[in-house]
Amino acid sequence: MAKHRFTRAPKINYAGAALGATVLLTAFGGHTAALADTLQTGAQHTAQAAGIAGHDVHENASAQRSQTAVTATATQVLALARQQIGTSENAQGGGTKFQEWYATSPRAAETVKRDGGAPRDYLNAAWCSMFVSWVGEHSGARSQIGWDAYTVTHAKWFKANGRWGSTPKPGAVVFFAWDGSKDLDSIQHVGFVEKDNGDGTITTIEGNTGNGKVEERVRPTSQVVGYGYPHYAA
C-alpha cells in the first residue's frame, strides 16, 4: 500500500496526518491522524513519492476530462471559494462538507484503490486538496480544476496536461512546499491564488490551514512549487 500526502498549511510548524487503517500517510498541519484510531501527534513524516502508479490512475481516470470546456470564470470560482471562508473542521480534524462530499464521490472510490483504506477514511483526513476539488465540482469547473485528496498527484495532473507554470494568476491552483523546494514530490499544501501582490507575495484562499479552517492568507512566493492553470471561461 503506497504512502500519499494529504496536507495542511501550518501557522509556523507542520506535522503529519494519515489515511487508511494501517498505513501512515503524510500530511502537514495541526495534527497527525491515523484514521483507524484517530491517533493525534505533532510529528512530521516524510512521504514516499510512490506516485507513479497512483499518478497513472489519476491521469487515466481524468486526463480526458481536463480537455472539457467549462462556463465558469476565474472570478466565479474565487467567489465560491471566498464564500467558504470561516468553515472549520471539528476536534477530530473532520466534519467539513468538503470531506463529506469527497468521501461519497466517485473519485474517492478511485483513490482508495490507489492509496488503500476506505472512502470513510477521508472524513477525517487533511482536506486542502478536497477543498479545492469541492470548489471545482460546485462551480462547474471540475474538469479544469481536477479532483483528488493527494496534493502531489493533483499537481502532477496539471503538469501532465500541459497546464503548469511559475506565474501567479487569479484562479490558479497554487501548490506549496514550506522549505522552498520546486520538486512536485515535495508539495505539502494547495489552495487558490486570489491575486499577485507584486511584492513577492500572493493572496490565497486555502482550506485546511493551520487553524483548521478555510482562510484567506498572504504567502511568500518563495514557498510556491508551482501553479496549475485551469482553462476558465473568459
TrEMBL record:
Keywords: Signal. Residues 1-36 form the signal peptide. InterPro entries: CHAP_dom, Papain-like_cys_pep_sf. It comes from the Bacteria. Transmembrane segments: none annotated. Gene3D superfamilies: endopeptidase domain like (from Nostoc punctiforme). Pfam families: CHAP. Residues 103-231 form the Peptidase C51 domain. This is CHAP domain-containing protein.
